[in-house]
Design brief:
This protein is of the alpha/beta class and 484 residues long. The protein is built from 26 helices and eleven strands. Strand 6 and strand 7 form a beta hairpin. It is globular and about 75 Å long. It starts with 14 loop residues before the first helix and ends in a 6-residue tail after the last helix. The relative contact order is 0.11.
Length: 484
C-alpha cells in the first residue's frame, strides 16, 4: 500500500523542542556520540546545526531515566548583554576578570549541585550532610535568583572589593575568602560523601545564544572551562559537560591558550553521508513503522524519487551534497521538499529543485550569520561570485580574490576587514568556513567525491590544489554557472 507522504513528520530542527516529542525514539547514535558517551570526554565541539544539543538532550534524558541527578542550564539563563552592561571592564580596575569568572562559575555550579541534592535527595541530608541542606535554605532559597543571577551576584562581590575603597588588609582578607570559595569548601567533605552513592551530571549547552563577542562574553566562557575542569576532578560521579560551537572554541584566545590542557577532554562532531542517511531514515521509519525493517536507502526511496534525472545523480547524494554534513541542514532541505510535494507516490525532482531555490538562499544567509562577529557582512563578499563560474582554476580564483582585497571589486560593507587581508588568507578563510570546496587528487578522494570541503577533509594544503568549486549549496542563490 502506498505511503501517505503528506503525513510524514520529520520532527523539529531544535532538540529542545524535539526531546519530548520523538527525539528519544529516533535519535541516531552516530560514531561521535559513541566516542563521547563511552569516554571521559566532557567538551563537545561542533559547527552550528551539527547536533550538539540533540546529543546533550538525549544524554540528559538517559541519565535521568537511570535515576541520576541531572542539571541542564538553558539558553535563557545566559545574558552576555547583562554582564557587559553592569560589570566594569578589565581596564577600569585591572580586576582579573578571567579568574573572577572562573571562581564565580565554580560557586554557581556548586550552588546548583547543592540545590539539586536538597530538592531530590532529602534522605541523604539527615545525617552529617545536613550542612548542605542548611546552606541551601539559608543562602540560596532565600535569594530569588536564577543561574545567571547567582553568577552575577558573586562577580559583583568580587568587583566591589577589588575596585572599591577597602583598606588593603581588609581587601586582602575578603578577596581570599571569595577566591578560595570559603563557603563551599566547608561543604565539600559532605558533598564527597554524597557522591559516593549519587551520580550528578551537569549539561551546559547553547553557549552561543546571545553571543556578542564582548570582553565579558569571552571571559564568561573561558572561566566556565576552567571551573568545569576543577569540578570534574572532585569525583568520577560528578561531571560537567559543555557543548560549544567550533567557531567560538577556535577564536576565543583565553580558551585557545588552555587548549593543550583540555584537548584530551574534547570531542569534535563529524558526520559522514552514510550516517546522515541513517539519521533521516530513522525519522521516516518513526512516522511509517512498516519501513522499520528496511535499510536507510530504501526508507529514503520510499519518500523521495531515487534520481535527479537532469543531473544524473541519486537524490540522496544530491541533497546531502548541498549541506555541510550537518543534520539541521539536511532536515531543513527535506522539509522544504515536503512543502513542495504535490501528491503522488514520491517527492519528485520538480519539488526538490523548487525547494533548493529557497534552501540555497537560507543556507547562504545562515553561513554569513554564523561568522558575523569575526567577519561581518560576509554576504557582501559572497556577491563577488554572483553570476560567475562555480568552478575555478587556482589562478582564476586567486585573481578574483586579489581584485577583492585590492578594492577593484566592490565588497561593500565587508570592505573594513577584506581590504586588510591578503588574498591567500581570504582563500583560506572561504575554504575553512565551507564556502569553497577543493578538487583533491584521485588517491585522496575515497568516498568524498572529486571536490571536498573542509568539513570532509581538513588537512588539505591549499597551495597544492589546482581547482576549486563554490559549495553547491550556494549555486542557486548566487546564480552560478556550470551546474553543481
Amino acid at each position: 500500500m502506498p505511503l501517505d507522504i503528506s503525513l510524514l513528520n520529520l520532527g523539529s530542527d531544535s532538540a529542545e523542542r524535539d526531546i519530548t516529542v520523538g527525539l528519544a525514539d529516533y535519535f541516531y547514535q552516530n560514531s561521535t556520540y559513541h566516542k563521547f558517551f563511552n569516554s571521559d570526554k566532557t567538551i563537545l565541539v561542533g559547527t552550528r546545526g551539527a547536533g550538539k544539543s540533540a546529543i546533550f538532550k538525549y544524554m540528559a534524558s538517559a541519565e535521568a531515566r537511570k535515576g541520576n541527578l541531572v542539571i541542564e542550564l538553558s539558553p535563557e539563563e545566559y545574558s552576555y548583554e547583562l554582564l557587559s552592561q553592569y560589570l566594569r571592564s578589565e581596564q577600569e580596575g585591572s580586576w582579573g576578570k578571567q579568574s573572577s569568572y572562573s571562581v564565580a562559575w565554580q560557586y554557581l555550579l556548586f550552588s546548583l549541585v547543592f540545590k539539586k541534592i536538597a530538592e531530590e535527595k532529602r534522605g541523604l541530608l539527615l545525617g552529617p550532610q545536613k550542612d548542605i541542606y542548611n546552606h541551601v535554605v539559608n543562602n540560596l532559597n532565600s535569594q530569588d535568583l536564577n543561574s545567571i543571577g547567582i553568577l552575577f551576584e558573586y562577580l559583583k562581590r568580587l568587583e566591589q572589593i577589588k575596585i572599591g575603597n577597602h583598606e588593603s588588609f581588609q581587601k586582602s582578607r575578603e578577596l581570599q575568602k571569595l577566591y578560595s570559595l570559603e563557603e563551599i569548601k566547608e561543604l565539600q567533605p559532605s558533598l564527597e560523601i554524597i557522591l559516593k552513592r549519587t551520580r550528578i551530571k551537569i549539561f551546559i549547552d547553547e553557549l552561543d545564544k546571545g553571543w556578542d563577542n564582548s570582553e565579558d562574553a569571552k571571559y564568561f566562557l573561558a572561566g566556565l572551562f576552567q571551573a568545569s575542569q576543577k569540578l570534574n576532578r572532585i569525583s568520577p560521579n560528578l561531571r560537567v559537560y559543555i557543548s560549544i560551537r567550533q567557531e567560538l572554541f577556535d577564536n576565543i584566545p583565553q580558551i585557545y591558550e588552555d587548549a593543550q590542557k583540555i584537548r584530551e577532554d574534547v570531542e569534535v562532531i563529524r558526520w559522514g553521508k552514510a550516517e546522515l542517511l541513517e539519521l533521516i531514515g530513522l525519522r521516516i521509519a518513526h512516522c511509517f513503522p512498516e519501513l522499520q525493517q528496511h535499510s536507510g536507502l530504501r526508507r529514503w526511496n520510499s519518500i523521495f524519487c531515487s534520481m535527479i534525472s537532469s543531473q544524473q545523480i541519486n537524490s540522496v547524494d544530491y541533497i546531502i551534497d548541498r549541506t555541510q554534513h550537518r543534520p539541521r541542514e539536511l532536515l531543513q532541505f527535506c522539509k522544504l521538499c515536503l512543502d513542495y510535494y504535490n501528491a503522488g507516490k514520491r517527492v519528485e525532482e520538480s519539488a526538490i529543485l523548487a525547494a533548493e531555490e529557497v534552501y540555497s538562499e537560507q543556507k547562504t544567509k545562515d553561513l554569513a550569520s554564523e561568522y558575523r562577529f569575526k567577519y561581518p557582512y560576509l554576504l557582501d563578499l559572497f556577491e563577488v561570485f554572483r553570476g560567475r563560474k562555480g568552478r575555478l582554476s587556482k589562478e582564476d580564483l586567486e585573481y578574483l580574490l586579489l581584485s577583492a582585497v585590492c578594492g577593484e571589486l566592490d565588497v561593500d560593507r565587508a570592505a573594513d576587514w577584506v581590504l586588510e587581508m591578503d588574498y591567500l588568507e581570504l582563500k583560506k578563510l572561504l575554504w575553512h568556513i565551507g564556502f569553497l570546496k577543493a578538487k583533491v587528487p584521485q588517491a585522496m578522494r575515497n568516498t568524498c567525491g572529486a571536490y571536498v570541503g573542509h568539513y570532509e577533509l581538513s588537512t588539505i594544503n591549499l597551495e597544492n590544489i589546482s581547482y576549486f568549486s563554490v559549495h553547491p549549496a550556494f549555486y542557486n542563490f548566487l546564480s552560478l554557472k556550470d551546474g553543481g
